[in-house]
Amino acid sequence: MTFNEQELVIGCQQRNRVAQKQLYDVFGGKLFAICLRYTKNRTDAEDVLQDAFIKIYENIVTFRNDSPVEYWLRSIVVNTALNHLRQQKHLKQLDDIDGHENVLAGKELVLADFQWQQLMEFIKELPIGCQTIFNLYAIEGYQHNEIAQKLGISEGTSKSQYSRARTLLQEKLNKETRFDDGSVRNK
Amino acid sequence: MMDPSETNSFEEQWKKVFQEASETPPLSTWEGIEARLDKEERKVVPLWWQTPRLWYAAASVAALLMVGIGLWNGSFSSEEKKDAHLAAGKTELVSPDADINTSSESSVEGKTAQQKEAVEVPSIQPETSIAQVESERRRKNSAENPAIIKQDESLASADTEKQVEEDRAAVSSFNNKVAVRKQENNPVSAEAVAGNKDLTNTDKFAAAQSNNVSVEPLNPANLDAASRIVAEALTPIGYKDLDVYVQKRYVFFKPGTITEKPVEKVSKNREYYAAVGLMPATFNPDVKVTSPPAAFANANASRQSLSGNSQAGTSYAVQTQGGKRLSKHWSVETGMSYLQGNSTYEGGYLLDVATSRSQNVLQSALMDKSGQNSGVNTPTSSPPANAFYIDVTKEVRNDYRYLQVPVQAGYTLNPDKKLSYSVLGGMMANFFMNNEIESASGTVITTKASDDVYRSLNWAATTGLRFNYRLSSQWKATLTGSYQKSITSGFKSNETLESRPYLYGVSWGVRYSF
């Protein structure tokens, strides 16, 4: 039996440890997956998740039920991950990258044949700037101007980094093939 | 540029893949979170907790509550008795409901039977009866749903356990309330709940608690608590009605404070000072002719010669001082002053008929002294032969000039205030410079220190009261009232003349402290 979101939020607002644990149990997995996407290793991801949940518990009193709690939680995790990257100085130098605008034009992309873990590894293999911007734009759904504002970069840089990320991902996907047994292996 | 539809497809695919992506974090992550939460809870100790005023307020509120509860109990005790009787009657009516429950669950049957017995115990408390009535009323209303009653029973038992184990009960309380609300919205049998594989740990814990205590006999006290919790739990509580306890945080911050330069203490314990002043004064040499001069004796005016006296004249002194403050109150000072002491002498005079020259008594006395000491610069060195006394009082000018060196101690009152007062006392060394006496003929007789008529050093006692007004940290204005009285005669020989000058003066000056 699980509680609904409102009950969990109320419990967490009351600093009820059981509710806090249940919130963690319910959303921790998804949020940990986000942390993994934004970091390069599991240790960093765990650190980000810890920091994020501390922030969540501290600030959940400000949460209003005008949107699903999961959106709110995801945004906190993403921001925490970005802060982590800033602290690690990974986002210091993000420059414009030219020449990747039309690489994917006309190419068909089918991700259904891949497991999300495999795709996440592809993302994690990207340069950190591409990784971050790809996550923000393609998966979190931020616009380039929003990303530019978040990361303190120009909108053009965001676009070019994203384009570069797409190209690199496409190249990785093209190297993979799917076998009948469902496994994904290098060509 | 990329095709928008293709771009959309690209992002949508990625988004869809990761929308439900989930990976269980390691157990250590939650342990870390929990440790940090514990640490923060210990750390956030509100400072108002230490405020005595809050405790006073809390004590006042507690006292008021106690008084209020006492009054309330007193006024409603009769009504409670009435309710107790009513409760006993209603308990009989609800027994069929209990039978319905017993058909579905043996443990519940046992409990219900025991509850019935408990209700009929004569020593039952009024509050228990009220709760039981409420409990039975709700049971009747929900008779068509035995699961709820059973759940209530479990909850009651869980609360009984809560009295034994505080921490575990706090957990179950939260879960139970929520669980009951869910039961009301979507009635499900308790067995189904217990058998649900998706139960969270805490749910299982609560359910286990319910099962464990269901076989225990209920005593009246437990029944009281159980009934109350049932009544409370069955009341629909909206989410908005739930109390949200928010830790009030007091954030203390230190704004950019302006570091004030400490004001230099005005009155330092050790300080030197220098002062200058001008003292208008009245100076009286207090000259007395102690024995008649020879000329006056010859003129049979010995008695008259002794009747003269000095009158103070307007004088002034220019002063410089230097001092040292020894302590907060005590100070010593010295300096150098130039005193112009003007006075007059009133006395008769002799007229030499032969020469028509006159000679006042002071002049005559000085001539006698000059004869003894030789060297007084007088117009006539010999007394007139045929002189006679003119019994007319005549004032002659008698001016002195001294160089003064005072040594004084001072005791200052209110040394740190803007206006302070100093009491002064000490000695004054008066170095004789010269004396001018107007002769009877109008000429001026000047006597210098080298003439050996006057003492070159004449000691005087001095005292005074000084007002110090602080103009700044270093400057003060002073107003000093002084009195000086010579303690030795001004003349080297007291045979014919004696002088003990004294002075009243008010000095105005400024003082600079180093």
From TrEMBL, chain A:
Residues 117-168 form the RNA polymerase sigma factor 70 region 4 type domain. Residues 23-89 form the RNA polymerase sigma-70 region domain. It comes from the Bacteria. The keyword Plastid does not apply. Signal peptide: none annotated. InterPro entries: RNA_pol_sigma-70-like (IPR039425), RNA_pol_sigma-70_dom (IPR014284), RNA_pol_sigma70_r2 (IPR007627), RNA_pol_sigma70_r4_t2 (IPR013249), RNA_pol_sigma_r2 (IPR013325), RNA_pol_sigma_r3/r4-like (IPR013324), WH-like_DNA-bd_sf (IPR036388). CDD domains: Sigma70_r4. GO terms for molecular function: DNA binding; sigma factor activity. One of its GO terms (biological process) is DNA-templated transcription initiation. Keywords: Sigma factor, Transcription, Transcription regulation. NCBIfam families: sigma70-ECF. PANTHER family: RNA POLYMERASE ECF-TYPE SIGMA FACTO (PTHR43133), RNA POLYMERASE SIGMA-70 FACTOR ECF SUBFAMILY (PTHR43133:SF46). Belongs to the sigma-70 factor family. ECF subfamily. This is RNA polymerase sigma-70 factor, ECF subfamily. It comes from Dyadobacter koreensis.
